[in-house]
Amino acid sequence: MNARYRLNIALVAEEGAGLRALKALEKTEHRIAMVLTSPPDSHGSAVWAYAEQRGHSLFPASSVRTAGFAEVLRKREVDLLLNVHSLHIVDGAVLEAPRIGAFNLHPGPLPRYAGLYAPSWAILRSERRYGVTVHRMLAGIDTGPIAYQTLFDLAESETALSVGLRCAEEGLALLFTLVATAAFDPSSIPRIEQDLTQREYFGRVVPDGGTLHWNRPAADVDRFVRAFCYFPFPSPWGAPKTRVGDREIGIVKTSPTGEQSSAPPGTIAKAFGDEVWAACADAWLRLDVITVDGRRVAPAEALSAGDRLGA
Q1: Looking at 202, 235, 265, which one is the last position of a domain?
Q2: Of the ranges 37-41, 125-129, 158-162, which one carries the lowest mean pLDDT score?
């Protein structure tokens, strides 16, 4: 590549996907002008620690919220600002500062799945086809023109984590298609306007307040748990909640048994050694991972046959 096409890139990045993006950018001929991420005093410091070790210029991710940061981007002659899993709302002046533009990797097919935790909502809605989008960032959240999008099938057993990982894998490929196109001919970056009549935005509301309802079919209860499930990592929604006596039980992971149940919903049974099953409206679910008052506990140690789970 001719040196004049070497891009100056500002990367706003969090989580595993952000770290993967940073490592992949390091292998290109482009220059990482700066990395913006959560500082070490917050939960998301893995990207910061790696970038610091590698000698990158670092700024708190929150810097993008202030109009004055646009001048920093202009002084660094930033061509592209790439946002990977950072949730900070970027100031309009900052969006306009990069020479080519600012682009976001969104873990969902826009415009239908805009906003937060889109993979979880897709599972709750029994989607069998999902996707990931790279779009130009405008003042509205997830409203900018689509540059690249890919769709893929979802399996019946997907969790929020598995869908999120697939989005990261597919999305990073799209992001580097964008980078390659920007280096060769920025004017050829696709600019597909979203049909905002199809838009649905998901905010911070947790479905059903995070409470499990055992009087629903087992497939629905299992789907609810899978939508929350980032195991072995913490879920942004927490674990779905239920109670037995005065103890709060978090249901982190379940598995369908295929066995019909006539027991009252929420009834606990022991089966096959240490397996613990819970009755739903029509069938039993196996409880694989649970917490009691916030602590992870083996289901067989915390629950006894005949216990009754409920809100």
Answers
A1: 202
A2: 37-41
Give the span between the Cα atoms of 6 and 20, in whole angstroms: 21
Q: Nearest Cα to 305, choosing from 287, 292, 293, 291?
A: 287
Per the rule left: phi > 0, alpha: psi between -120 and 50, beta: everything else, 7 is: beta
Rounded to 5°, angle at Cα 94 from 90 and 98: 125
Residue 2 has pLDDT above 80, yes or no: no
**Amino acid identity for residue 31 in this structure:** R
Exposed, middle or buried by CB within 10 Å (0-12, 13-18, 19+), for 173? middle
Helix (H) or strand (E) holding 20: helix 15-26
Mean pLDDT estimate for the chain:
95
Residue 232 belongs to domain with CATH number: 3.10.25.10
Query: 211 Cβ partners below 8 Å, 6+ apart?
Result: 240, 241, 242, 311
115 and 222 assigned to the same domain: no
DSSP letter (8 states) at residue 267: B
Name the domain count of the chain.
Answer: 2
> Tens digits of per-residue pLDDT, 278-301?
999 999 999 999 999 999 999 999
- Give this prediction's pTM: 0.93
- Cα–Cα distance measured from residue 208 to residue 202, given in angstroms and rounded to the nearest whole number: 14
SS3 128: coil
- Of 202, 223, 253, which residue is a domain's last? 202
Q: Are strands 8-13 and 80-84 parallel, antiparallel or unpaired?
A: parallel
Whole-number Å distance between alpha carbons of 284 and 263? 9
Number of Cβ atoms within 10 Å of the Cβ of 43: 8
Q: Hey, which residues does 34 pair with through a beta bridge?
A: 10
* 144: in domain: yes
- Give the pLDDT confidence score for residue 44 in this predicted structure: 54
